[in-house]
Every structure is written in structure tokens, then in C-alpha cells.
Amino acid sequence: MENVRLKLANQSMSAERDAARAQFTHYAQAIDIFNTIAGATQDAHQQAIQAS
Fold this sequence. Notes:
Blueprint: H1 2-51
């Protein structure tokens, strides 16, 4: 019986770890997109300054 309980606890921890990893990956992608947009905005701003 103890074995089954340990197995279930282990599966639960695995699921939590996977969920945390997925959440982190999603967060990292969001930051990546934000940085890309911020970088593009900065580039456009620099070009506008040089053009004027």
C-alpha cells in the first residue's frame, strides 16, 4: 500500500514539475516577443532620428 501511495505522490510531483516547466517556457516566449517588439521600436526610432 505504501508503494502505491509513493507512486501517486511521485506522479503528482512530476505533473507539477511539467506544469511549472510549461509555464516557464510560456513566460520566456512572452519575454522574447516583448524584447523583439521593443528592439524593433528602438531600431525604428534610431532610424527616424538619423533621417531627420
